[in-house]
Amino acid sequence: MTIHLGIYDGPTGPLLLDATARGAKGIKASTNQHGYERLLATVPATLPDIWRIYDYGAPPYARLRANGYTIWEGRVADPELLSEQEDGIVIQAVGAWDTFGDIPYTALWSHSGTADWRPLRGTETTATATPGHWQTDVNNRLYITLVKNSVIPNNTAGALAYRLPDGSSRVATRVSFSYTTVLPPSFALRITWYSAAPGNASWTAIAGATVITGSGTGSVTQSLTGSPVAVDVRIANLSGSSYTVAAETDAFYAICTNVRVTSQATPITVANIAADMVATIAALNPSQLDASTAQIGFGLSLPDITDAIYEDADMRRILDNLTARGDSSGGLLECAIWDDRRLVLQARGASARAWAADAASIRLRRPLETVANSTYGVYQEADGYALRTAVANDTQSIARLGMTRRAAIEANTTSSAEATRRRDLALTDRAQPQPAAMYSIPALFSLSGAPWPSYMLRAGDTLNVRGIPSGFGATVDRLRTVRIKRTDYDADSDTIAFEPETPIQSLEVMLAQRG
Amino acid sequence: MTQPLPYLAIGDDIDTIVLSSGTTTPSDFTLNRRFWAPAVTARRPSRLGGQGSYEDVIEEIDLNVRGASTPAQLYANIERLNQLLDRAQQWLTHPFSNPVTMFYAPQGSTVTFVSGPLRAIVLGRVPGDSPIALPPTFTEAGMTNIVAKLRLRFVRRGRFGFRQVDTASLGNIGTSSAAANPTVHTATFSAGNTRTYTPAKININVQQPNTMATIGAGVIVTTSGTSSANYPPDIEEAEGSSPGTGYSVVADGANNARGGNVLRFTPTTTAQFTSNWLTTVTMPNNPGGPTAVLLAVRNNSASRTFWLRVEIRDPADNIVATPMIQVPAGTSPQILRMGIVTLLNAPSRGGGIGVARVVCQADSTSGSPTLDIDYICTVPLFDSTCRVIQHDAMASGSVANPSLCVVYEEVLFRYPRIGGHPFASSIAVTYPASYFDTIDIETYGDRINVAWLATRANYWRYSNLAGTVVNTQLLATRAVSYLGPQ
Known about the structure:
- The structure holds two protein chains of two kinds.
- Chain A is mainly beta.
- Helices cover 12% and strands 41% of the residues of chain A.
- Chain A is built from six helices and 36 strands.
- Mean pLDDT of chain A is 87; it is low at 503-515.
- In chain B, 6% of the residues lie in helices and 40% in strands.
- In chain B, strands 1, 2, 3, 4, 5, 6, 7 and 8 form an eight-stranded antiparallel β-sheet that branches. In chain B, strands 10, 11, 13, 29, 30, 31, 32 and 34 form an eight-stranded antiparallel β-sheet that branches. In chain B, strands 16, 17, 18, 20, 24 and 26 form a six-stranded antiparallel β-sheet that branches.
């Protein structure tokens, strides 16, 4: 009898309670796509032991192990004291993925839109901005023009500004755009950045830089020094005297497109953001998460993420969203925490084990609802106007099904390339029917036929179900090899229930008997 | 000599109530004839450890109780029963009380009251139930001075065991010779095979000077077997000849490498590098089936991360692999738990033919990082006597040659324990330690195999303050036990 459930004084502390030696019952340990999910156990214990667990300071840590192998580990999140027929405590523990819910995330990584740039008021820049002399718009561009008959004092400007999220854990370090200017001589297109930017009160400039004086075209990437919380793009009168605009409005102007504010050099990838989240958690709660980032995106080619701005966001949702974008070549990703509280971001299935099982009984559905053999991406212009990519088709699937099922894939980006990649990713994943299946298997085997303990089946693993014929088509092939979405191990009876990626809707469990 | 008449009693350090005296002279308590037989235990269905391999059982005993001469004495006797079973319950919750034990010697058995009856700890009442049920005739007791068919109902440990395991003449003590760690020690019990899982306790004597106040953290690996079928853990050098591209054999006797050398991985890219089959890893004792794999590894670069896995093949070229494991931070040698693999067949192909290899990978080649592997330990997990027990450092009493003990003695203690002990000649836990795996160790057959894997500071093997590899030695005893009457 070799499975041990221990409750420890935190992830690195000593044993508080040998739960299995005290006759723990009802031990269920589940895994999902984020790693260890949840553990439940009822532990008979003396009242002093119970109070010690219940009235913890730092959350105790639960480990379910078998001969050195970690079946499950995580922090005790919700102990429940029992004092009815016999004293005991219900241990409810959650995996380390939960630690990403401890701290909301506010950060700007990359901002590529123009819709939330706005004119800078004179009260905000100690009267150097004179918005009455200028007209601006943010219609898929930053546009500033000199208004006819305005008398523009020397050293004043018309500006459009962007403020980073307040309290952002990351500061802007770069702004880049393409520009076209038609300006009087000694009028310059400039970038200014600020260390403080309160609404309708004086902003504190850190520095500024001239992009171009007079007329011209080009593109610029300006590094921002200090710790800017806001940046503006402006046309400034640097002639040394007032200037009266004799020309029509729109005769003199500056247009900036492909505007992007970032907090580091591009590309900005999911690995960068995930590593920052790990650093954020590990700095505040070092015992809850391993600070190692070595397995975050190691060896992957990841796409540049053009829009990544988060305000008070749940890191778990952010990671899910970013992971769904895939890698640069359209490959699927997975993000999870397994052993040692270490975040892993890798190609989907990179560390999956392949198992075999005999299907003792099968229930199958083939829902058409999930099929999308034709997809297009939806993305936005810089001002928020929705654009759509070209449609991509899986001709083989369309021919086989004799019908086209088209899906719009929302990309939440201003990048057509990113929208195209997400379109293709969805097509790859959904072109074939995704069978909803329920299996009952008598035992778990390696592909070479050796029986393994059933607790070794984890979410993300693949299961080859022997006994399902090959050669019938892609749908059947998908049934023969399923990826496990969730497992639920019952240590009392040594059985494991699992769900494949597309479960039967009733979500009835599939039981793998003792292995 | 055999037991002349049945002997049955329950008692603790305060009171012993004899329910069947084993002689022709009855006590105030007598078994109701044909209304009791000892419960027989069975294997636990789950793999949960910590309480032995067998289920607790419920005893229901119908008694006749009398007063010696007055009803008041009768009521006092009933109250003795009440208090005794109440103390049994108390033992589960109070750390300083002694257990209540059931003692039994069936008539005609060679297990006698004189030689020492079978024992099992009483765990108290059946949950939700009263331990004693008085019969409806109780109201007549004041006239008859007897209560017939009083029913005791309680939970006890399933196995019947003995206490006298420490008597060498009974053949349930075994020792090994001292040898430099890590060594697989085998202790043989001269009393012969047992064919039920038998609680055991071990003393691993760590022959270090008394200037070391602790015994370091490590991993204990154990299996049990018989003379004809013994499958001890294997500890084999990783540094096989011609280890392959990216690998070399490097001398590291200065850090007490086992065998003097280590296998070194020097990455030239961040790709995975697969070694050749390591000729030194032959796994002659592995029977196939589930096997735990442990490695002694050292990351020589503080700024680089390494991952590695172990692959094992059998004679049919079925290859199984552990998961890719990240080497934890630190540049000192450490014991790495690689997980469990299941081998379809016994892997051995004969001496000199390697059956294991490693696959290593680094996150970068910047700084010319290297990873060293000293030895590989494989532990057959063919039944629940096979254990891998990771433990923390423990106090040792600051004596020369302290011991690391694992004690599982279910006829005396609530729970198995692990910890330091100042003596090599006895087996007890004086300084409890923290652990990570089940420690209710059991044996089957007539021998137990034990190895202790530990590193210290810059040393691959547990070494004393002078940098000398310390010897370890095994002392083991078992408490022969039975599933029912014997």
